[in-house]
């Protein structure tokens, strides 16, 4: 009974966002501004369902459900809820509920708000399916759905070129990584025989010791790095800020960009703890951490600043996953949850500032605290957590990160230096966003700044308060969320006891040093911005410009290939097609040693010899015909000869079908030839005809040899016996051929009838067009004048 309830609840949680997405445009038209409140019930209900699984999940249990999807290929529509999936699912649905409400206020009055809700909820459902999916192919389907729906959301304002470019860039990069991930999953399925995450996690060292570990590792990392914006694939994330702010607050801080991190956390017990894993991930993560934070301080737009801090945070997470120790994974889990809370809140603050002051440029903002006090409070709460100040969940994460890296070898020292520098830069960026727009004097350029409505300030305030409550009630926080998540990631039970009370140790000292360095960077942010700009200018164009170059190169290459392959000449297309078919016939038989033995001359009766002679006469008639129309009519002789052979062999129904098809083919070809502007005959010289003749003979020989190889194989009567046994018992028909056509393959027969009907209509259209043109060419005698 419990299993049935889990299956029903799990499927309902997965379906609710998609159902709401289908209803969103209708609800928006019917109830207008209140649609957000109704639509937010869907993710809220999904959150409640997932929350109901917490008692079992927090005790180390796993909830699984699903059903067979494509049994022939061992593909199941199956899902798995453990500590990792549960916490991700709660973040997706919980923050998603706040985002839907926020979108209702932020996009109030927008003509396409219903469409926006639909896209957002579709993405929410896709992301939820991704983190809960157990079967590898199911996970990939949801993975690509997140790319497609994010493309729709980033390009929501499709009339702006920058929005279109950002959407295409995100789709190209994440979609390309998705194809690599598909290849990796296929290798895991076909070479390791593992079809689901449950099997992968239960296989132990099977993948690590596999001779195919390297290609699997590279392909999985390509999928994760492109999705989670690791350098040099990071460029799509800042450009995705062209999307409306609710998209940035949800997709590009709390959900989609975490998909790659989720995959690495999920696969860590199976792929991690190898030399490659502990080298490649920390290297990419550390570079992304530092460079992303530098670019964040350099930016002047609040959303761009936050976007680059997201890149930096993702680099920090990847670096910690690469270290792979117990404390490093605990630090990654704590930071991931904290980041989702404070970054989602800060992005909503950015939208609130833009909504109330009509600009996001930091240099043009100031003094908003008096006019937007609730937004300022929310910004300050989120910034304190991002800066790692106690008592906020960001402090717990930062302390655990430093504790995980406090070793004396060069490897950990280098990673520690990257973590300190990156965290200090992100500290400065957090307070650049949370303080500079709100303190000081209000610029004269800002006219009537105002606080947004309830739905605009409610979301960021809730996330900021949760960042505080999580640290204050750390025991409950660890028991329900971070502990089960870390245990699922590490592959064995993990106990987390870190609290908001500082301990006088090396980690706390490094934390204080980070804060001090962050304050210095904050005070010198203008100088840091200028120095970073000069450095980037000296480097020249980077990955973003490189993407444009790559796209232009792809277009030029496509143009070149198209001009070569699509020349517009029918003879060229026919030649390529016949060459390909001939190669497909001969090459497998030659390489596989399947060429037939030399056939023996059959004992034929006189009528059969006469039919063969008729076919040969038809072939000669085609070759020696003086005009095309005669050749086409002569071509029908072979089909009629084949129909006679069917009749002589006792298959009159098949013979009759062949007569009809051949007659129809000849009529259609003749009519088409009359419509084309061709010379009546082929006047090419012999040297141009011979290659075509040779190719035609090769193609015919290929089919002949292929058919000989088929008929020389031992006859398997299993299918014939099946139809003989069941034609009357099941279909109540004594004519086996008719039963096969009408019952066993009735849909196929219906398709053939549709083809014949369509062809007949096409012939009728050709005839009527020709008759119509002739009638127009003749003057009407009633209209002629003497």
From TrEMBL:
Q: Which residues form the MrpA C-terminal/MbhE domain?
A: 690-768
Annotated InterPro entries = CPA3_Na-H_Antiporter_A, MrpA_C/MbhD, MrpA_C/MbhE, ND/Mrp_TM, Nuo/plastoQ_OxRdtase_6_NuoJ, Proton_antipo_N
Keyword Cell membrane in the entry? The reply is yes
| The keyword Lyase belongs to this UniProt entry's keyword annotation | no
Instruction: Check the record and name the Pfam families matching this protein.
Output: MbhD, MbhE, Proton_antipo_M, Proton_antipo_N
- Domain named MrpA C-terminal/MbhD is located at 613-677
- NADH-Ubiquinone oxidoreductase (complex I) chain 5 N-terminal domain residues are 71-117
- State the source organism's domain of life: Bacteria
Segments passing through the bilayer: 6-27, 34-54, 83-104, 116-133, 168-189, 209-226, 277-297, 304-323, 329-353, 374-393, 413-435, 456-474, 506-524, 572-594, 606-625, 632-650, 656-673, 693-711, 753-771
- Gene3D superfamilies, A to Z: NADH-ubiquinone/plastoquinone oxidoreductase chain 6, subunit NuoJ
Alphabetical keyword list: Antiport, Cell membrane, Ion transport, Membrane, Transmembrane, Transmembrane helix, Transport
Bilayer topology reads: Multi-pass membrane protein
Report the subcellular localization. Answer: Cell membrane; Membrane
Please list the residue ranges annotated as the NADH:quinone oxidoreductase/Mrp antiporter transmembrane domain: 133-415
Predominant subcellular localization, coarse grouping: membrane
**Name of the featured protein:** Monovalent cation/H+ antiporter subunit A
């Amino acid at each position: 009974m419990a299993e049935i309830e889990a299956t029903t609840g799990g499927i309902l949680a997965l379906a609710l966002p998609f159902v709401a997405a289908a209803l969103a445009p209708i609800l928006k038209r019917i109830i207008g501004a209140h649609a957000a409140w109704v639509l937010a019930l869907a993710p809220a209900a999904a959150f409640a369902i997932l929350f109901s699984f917490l008692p079992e999940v927090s005790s180390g249990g796993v909830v699984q459900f699903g059903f067979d999807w494509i049994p022939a290929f061992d593909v199941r529509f199956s899902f798995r809820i453990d500590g990792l999936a549960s916490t991700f699912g709660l973040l997706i649905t919980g923050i998603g509920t706040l985002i839907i409400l926020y979108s209702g206020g932020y996009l109030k009055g927008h003509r396409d708000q219903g469409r926006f809700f639909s896209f957002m909820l579709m993405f929410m459902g896709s992301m939820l399916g991704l983190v809960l999916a157990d079967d590898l192919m199911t996970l990939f389907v949801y993975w690509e759905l997140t790319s497609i729906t994010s493309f729709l959301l980033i390009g929501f304002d499709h009339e702006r070129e920058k929005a279109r470019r950002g959407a295409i860039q995100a789709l190209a990069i994440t979609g390309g990584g998705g194809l690599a991930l598909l290849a990796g999953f296929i290798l895991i399925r076909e070479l390791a025989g593992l079809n689901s995450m449950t099997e992968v996690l239960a296989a132990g060292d099977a993948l690590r010791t596999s001779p195919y570990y390297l290609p699997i590792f590279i392909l999985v990392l390509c999928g994760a790095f492109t999705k989670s914006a690791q350098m040099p694939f990071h460029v799509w994330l800042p450009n995705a800020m062209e999307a409306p702010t609710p998209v940035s607050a949800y997709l590009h801080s709390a959900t989609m960009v975490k998909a790659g991190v989720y995959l690495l956390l999920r696969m860590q017990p199976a792929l991690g703890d190898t030399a490659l894993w502990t080298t490649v991930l920390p290297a990419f993560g550390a570079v992304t951490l530092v460079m992303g934070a530098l670019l964040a301080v350099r930016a002047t737009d609040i959303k761009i600043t936050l976007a680059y801090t997201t890149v930096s945070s993702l680099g920090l997470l990847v670096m910690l996953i690469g270290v792979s120790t117990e404390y490093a994974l605990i630090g990654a889990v704590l930071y991931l949850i904290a980041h989702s809370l404070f970054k989602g809140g800060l992005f909503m603050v950015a939208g609130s500032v833009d909504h109330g002051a009509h600009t996001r440029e930091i240099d043009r903002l100031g003094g908003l605290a008096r006019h937007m006090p609730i937004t300022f409070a929310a910004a300050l709460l989120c910034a304190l957590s991002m800066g790692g100040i106690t008592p906020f969940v960001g402090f717990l994460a930062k302390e655990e990160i430093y504790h995980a890296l406090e070793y004396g070898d060069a490897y950990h020292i280098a990673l520690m230096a990257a973590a300190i520098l990156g965290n200090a830069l992100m500290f400065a960026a957090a307070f650049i966003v949370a303080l500079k727009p709100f303190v000081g004097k209000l610029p004269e350029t800002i006219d009537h700044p105002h606080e947004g409505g309830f739905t605009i300030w409610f979301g960021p305030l809730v996330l900021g308060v949760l960042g505080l409550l999580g640290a204050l009630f750390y025991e409950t926080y660890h028991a329900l969320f971070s502990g089960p998540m870390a245990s699922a990631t590490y592959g064995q039970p993990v106990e987390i006891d870190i609290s908001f009370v500082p301990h006088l140790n090396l980690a706390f000292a490094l934390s204080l040093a980070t804060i001090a360095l962050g304050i210095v960077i904050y005070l010198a942010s203008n100088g840091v911005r200028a120095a970073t700009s000069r450095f980037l200018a000296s480097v020249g164009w980077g990955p973003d410009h490189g993407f444009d170059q790559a796209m232009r190169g792809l277009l030029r290459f496509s143009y070149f290939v198209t001009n070569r392959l699509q020349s517009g000449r029918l003879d060229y297309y026919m030649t390529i097609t016949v060459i390909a078919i001939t190669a497909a016939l001969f090459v497998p038989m030659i390489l596989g040693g399947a060429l037939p033995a030399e056939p023996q001359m059959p004992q034929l009766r006189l009528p059969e010899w006469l039919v063969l002679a008729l076919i040969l006469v038809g072939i000669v008639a085609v070759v020696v015909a003086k005009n095309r129309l005669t050749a086409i009519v002569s071509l029908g002789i072979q089909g009629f000869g084949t129909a006679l052979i069917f009749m002589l062999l006792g298959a009159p129904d098949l013979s009759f079908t062949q007569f009809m098809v051949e007659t129809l083919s000849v009529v259609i070809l003749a009519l088409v030839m009359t419509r084309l502007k061709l010379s009546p005959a082929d006047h090419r010289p012999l040297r141009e005809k011979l290659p075509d003749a040779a190719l035609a003979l090769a193609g015919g020989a290929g089919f002949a040899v292929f058919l000989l190889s088929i008929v020389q194989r031992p006859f398997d009567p299993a299918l014939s016996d099946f139809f003989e046994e069941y034609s009357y018992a099941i279909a109540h028909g004594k004519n086996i051929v008719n039963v096969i056509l009408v019952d066993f393959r009735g849909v196929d027969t219906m398709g053939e009838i549709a083809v014949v009907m369509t062809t007949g209509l096409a012939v009728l259209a050709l005839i009527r067009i020709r008759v119509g043109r002739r009638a127009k060419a003749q003057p009407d005698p009633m209209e002629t004048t003497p």
